């Protein structure tokens, strides 16, 4: 334990650090790097306040975890393994340490995975690993185990990752704060008071059901109002196209004027830890700026669109309207656009749709369990009509994304297509 | 006029755009570039929430100006020149368009000036200039005139820049919101209701005096709690040292491994508009990262310190304690540090100390005038005891900044110095 | 029009009065009386912040209506009858002017009705009537017509009373603010921007659907977390018992030591306007205090329980568990309690359950209609999965209320009953 | 200790009760009575949200005290007498238990004193005394001692009552919240973190100086914007006139139609504990309503003015303008008003002017002491320029209050007076 340090935080007011290990982890260069990765990727192009970093979110997850554990200790719950405190705090702090720039787009195009990178950073030759190893020889391994959900005590992993975990609680509040929407607010203090350890699980006291309902309703709204916002989707699609285009050029041996090592190794599929450490959003934006000046017209155009926020437009379409898709391709070709890089069908339901579902087998997240006065556990959707309703909703509009100029230039096919889309 | 567009904004809830010219300006690449410049420069290293951009601040200044003008129009004030509406809105939106990355440090080291750049962007071959020129042939020139305070109507310039202008009102609220401190809050809605045009000036209805007092008290607190925070000063000093060191190396013909054109031209003192456009904080951070890998040990070390947030420590000192300064230099040299790059005396009072002062001749900002029921104008500090008090305060601690290792390594001179400083 | 007046309001920041008629109405003694009637009746016994008055709520409803109309006028909507502005504002301000103290309980026991009283006050010999009559000879009649929903233009009545009216929007925000719960917050500014007049109705632009969803979710949560809170129900039940007991005693000729005229006339079923004006919550609390000192032991005991917040306890029960009810009656009699006054079954679903229902015939409130780009109207639950879910929920626990002492005194029947209830 | 109970509170989110004694005190009828006494007396006539009760404030003072002590215990400060915890909590909770309705006015006219009453309630035959006596035979006496500042340990009394006590911290935040002004906000959490026990005093860690400055600036603003608001003063003056008039009538043997015992005994100067318990704001408002129907024209008129909020107008005047005062008296007599009851000169500086003063001998409140790294204590105004400035300000306008009709009726003397006042 050290003299308490505090960080001013807009969401939690203050973040309290009471352990030297936590303090030292925050000061590693791997953790400081999270300042250069935005929490919400491309969302800042939709909500201009959303510039907050994964650094601030990681501190927030740590703080919520700290508060939960502190409540467990104050109440001396028998089912809480007190010796796991520091492990939980470190795993909470580090769970996102492997996130790269614009993760969604890069992971999709290059097949990287941020959880793997978190574990590589924790276990590799890093300052983070040095700090953890000072606790005990196996501590870094345990922290990685909690993040990858292989750690032997389920109660520890589910504190860090479950349907009601510190991660989600922080990001809903934080993303609502920085975007300025007021959908993400719920009564955190009340939820912190009603969770408790019980037979190796984190459960919720029955009387807290309504607070959890409210949390799940916030989550529902945030997904549809913020995370799946069509303009954000547009930015992500565009960034994906840029990366695909650059990758294809690279594979064709195109001579890039600026090719820093981390990007080269990303293209070659052989990113080292040292590369990964340099791969932040500043570098990505610098690369995009150079690409916007490249000779290849498609790469230059797409990169410029992203930088200057000239995003694709979108129209709602019926699911799998194959004919319409063909008409779009034809109109684009007529207008001089390569349809491979200037057209995309998007189905939010293909995304990891993060509405609470109690029953999906593939879901590796603990469902939310209510503990009643008779020590009986019930999954929340069996008790709450509103949760049952939300978890049963399958929704999401299918949209087609294309450059705004398609209809402005007004070739014959585009005109016909436009009439079909809007004059119906 | 166009169909109203809105931006979600955490500070003003919504920002309303009702003019095509304003909408088009926002969509220029020069204005979009402000997304890549932080509003508070290095403050994010002190307050991790302070990642907000000059883009969001510029929208905020526009919105406050829009609200003030809208109130003027609703009340049909005779002294308000209605034909200046669009000019005011555009000048409010664009007043910061010339800001570069980490302006304070770069302007100090390289002698650039963001107001000049704003005017170059407005008058040069830019998308901004094209949009403005569509209004009228002289419109761009007028906008530049308002920003440089040469425009012929004082009422227009003082709306955009005075002791109670839209600029300050937005940044106090915005910086308080994103840092999470609660010093910057004041009753904006009330102030907007009590300002009015009067004989070519913007004045405040007497009954609004207390709201203005509160605004000035907020400003006072924000300066000392946020803008002059010693940790932020430390980051700025460090960044200044990095830039000085790189500039000296450049002048010595040092072979940099990465030297993008905007940086080259910055060093050569011949930045073009096109260079300036590419010079954002992403590029600066990428450059710092490359520099942290350079062979020159001082440049590499200083750059790494900034990137990984290993800032200089500081100690309060008596003003101009020449002897102590010499002892610091000696101890640093003994410990192997080049004192030119690892030591700095800092006096906040040397900074542009932005506490309200009614009377300073060099101050080009309109003082705040109260309008009473008898149409008499009185400068506020003649009426308000609290404003008089604040404006009379001369304060600010003198601090010396140096690397934390100085005392950790513990050479003999450092030990003696440490004893002198802390055991007194 | 007069010089704008403002009221400081915690919910809307400021309330703006711009019409002499509105200003004069606020200053009538009938409207000032609303300061002495709490907005949430007995809820202050559950949420100690909930002391806010119907005066503040009425100003809030007025302010929201003013903002909606102002938006209609700014946009010059053809379907908005501009001449109805003042009528809407006055009806909004006065819609609750007939509310008595603790309306729910008193209306239930004595069969009074606050809407009728609103109209009596508006049409009777009152200051309110004088102010309205200065507008035009028929104006008071029109205002009463809007409140009683007989006014000829549906668009006017539905602005004041519908599923998405200024009344509900204000009370959700206000009750959330004063109780301190954060369930009632929704994006008022956005909703105000998406409502519009259309063919004699108030409709919602399709793009505002999610904001309306959020409003309906808030409403759902507020009903279950605040309005139907079991402790508040307990206080209301207790107050009902007090009133029933006093009424029965009165009918038996009991000699009350303190019987002010308004109470006497309430008992006699012949309340005059002048009586009603004196009948506020101060008088009711004073009467309760005198009753707590009466010789009749039941009246004194029940009144004291209410005053000193010694509310009935409650237990969840199966619907219509007749046997249990009998056991309770027996145990109460054994313990010396008159079961008529010390026992109550409560079914929130018997209450006017104010969750959004699009289709109920008895519902006299306009459903919420979405207006799409093709000028087509769709009832919201046909478009929104979440609204469909909420509107289909039938819930509410059945509870039995009884004095806490029943089990503390511990007669044999009580012990048996207690075992049955809690040890199952 | 009991199972933790919580109250939902808008200011502190939740109030936590962890001791049976505290829980039992809250449930006494003497403490419940505080629900019927407004925290801000007549301020609700200026700020309609200000209906909050002394009940909620008392809980808030308790909660802040609990948090301070809990921080002391967490840090195991040697200078904190841990055995005094419950005493501090009870004194904090009960410090206002003796407040009567509209204390300022009643205390002034009848010479009662709420601190004396608090002690009478704590020491007398009350439920509060019974609860306290269950702790130990001397506990009630100790609690009374802390409230009357005679308790032997200064650290205990100064926690409950000093220049930076839980009382002030709660009321500034609470009054700001309920009135809706934003002057009263300061960083409570930070202040709680920097106070500590030191050699029998509560002191502030030097690094917390700016947070304390902000608290004192809030206090300054709240006094001038809220507590001494001229409209609130007007209401208090009017209420004082009502009471003086009724008292004079009583002394003359006037036959009141309604004279409840507590009022009778108040007039006779022999209030018993039982009377005092019945004397709440409901009773006062009921009495005022009856008085507004009395035959005595002055009493009826003044009472009606208060009830219907027809307050006196005011004009700023020079200090002690004796001539003007005479002119007012003459004009009032001419217009048929008894100047004794319809005229008042008000000097806020005569009020207990609660701006921080470090040095006044008559001040029985501990000044604020800063503790530096060398364990040296310094009074804050010796360190903070802004505190020095505030504490040196002597301000306050002198105002004359009179009925609005004086100038409306327009007798000759009134016309002359009006011209003198407003046309100068």
From TrEMBL, chains A, B, C, D:
It holds the Pfam family HD_assoc_2. Residues 50-181 form the HD/PDEase domain. One of its GO terms (molecular function) is dGTPase activity. It comes from the Bacteria. SUPFAM superfamilies: HD-domain/PDEase-like. InterPro entries: dGTPase-like, HD/PDEase_dom, HD_assoc_2, HD_domain. GO terms for biological process: dGTP catabolic process. Signal peptide: none annotated. PANTHER family: DEOXYNUCLEOSIDE TRIPHOSPHATE TRIPHOSPHOHYDROLASE, DEOXYNUCLEOSIDE TRIPHOSPHATE TRIPHOSPHOHYDROLASE SAMHD1. This is HD domain-containing protein. It comes from Paenibacillus chitinolyticus. The lineage of its organism: Bacteria, Bacillati, Bacillota, Bacilli, Bacillales.
């Amino acid at each position: 334990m050290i003299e308490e340090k505090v960080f001013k935080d807009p969401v939690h007011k203050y973040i309290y650090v009471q352990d030297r290990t936590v303090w030292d982890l925050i000061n590693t260069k791997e953790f400081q790097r999270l300042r250069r990765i935005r929490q919400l990727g491309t969302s800042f192009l939709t909500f201009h306040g959303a510039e907050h970093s994964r650094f601030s979110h990681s501190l927030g997850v740590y703080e919520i975890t700290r508060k939960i554990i502190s409540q467990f200790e104050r109440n001396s719950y028998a089912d809480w393994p007190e010796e796991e405190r520091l492990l939980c705090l470190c795993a909470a702090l580090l769970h996102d340490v492997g996130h790269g720039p614009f993760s969604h787009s890069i992971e999709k195009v290059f097949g990287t995975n941020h959880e793997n990178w978190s574990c590589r950073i924790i276990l590799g030759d890093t300052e983070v690993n040095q700090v953890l190893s000072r606790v005990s020889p196996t501590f870094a391994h345990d922290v990685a185990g909690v993040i990858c959900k292989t750690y032997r005590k389920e109660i520890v992993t589910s504190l860090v990752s479950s349907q009601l975990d510190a991660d989600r609680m922080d990001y809903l509040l934080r993303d609502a704060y920085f975007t300025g929407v007021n959908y993400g607010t719920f009564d955190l203090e009340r939820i912190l008071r009603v969770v408790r350890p019980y037979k190796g699980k984190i459960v919720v006291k029955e009387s807290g059901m309504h607070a959890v309902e409210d949390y799940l309703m916030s989550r529902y709204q945030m997904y549809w109002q913020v995370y799946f916002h069509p303009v954000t989707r547009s930015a992500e699609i565009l960034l994906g196209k840029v990366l695909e285009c650059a990758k294809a050029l690279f594979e064709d041996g195109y001579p890039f004027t600026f090719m820093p090592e981390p990007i080269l190794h990303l293209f070659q599929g052989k990113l080292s830890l040292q590369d990964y450490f340099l791969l932040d959003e500043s570098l990505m934006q610098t690369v995009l700026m150079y690409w916007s000046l490249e000779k290849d017209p498609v790469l230059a155009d797409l990169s410029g669109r992203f930088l200057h926020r000239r995003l694709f437009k979108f129209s709602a379409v019926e699911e799998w309207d194959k004919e319409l898709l063909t008409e779009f391709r034809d109109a684009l070709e007529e207008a001089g656009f390569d349809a491979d890089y200037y057209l995309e069908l998007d189905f939010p339901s293909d995304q990891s749709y993060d509405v609470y579902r109690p029953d999906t087998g593939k879901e590796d997240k603990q469902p939310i369990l209510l503990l009643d006065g008779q020590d009986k556990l019930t999954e929340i959707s069996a008790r709450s009509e509103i949760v049952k309703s939300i978890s049963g909703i399958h929704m999401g509009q299918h949209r087609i994304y294309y450059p705004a100029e398609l209809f402005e230039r007004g070739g014959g096919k585009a005109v016909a297509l436009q009439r079909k889309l809007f004059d119906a």
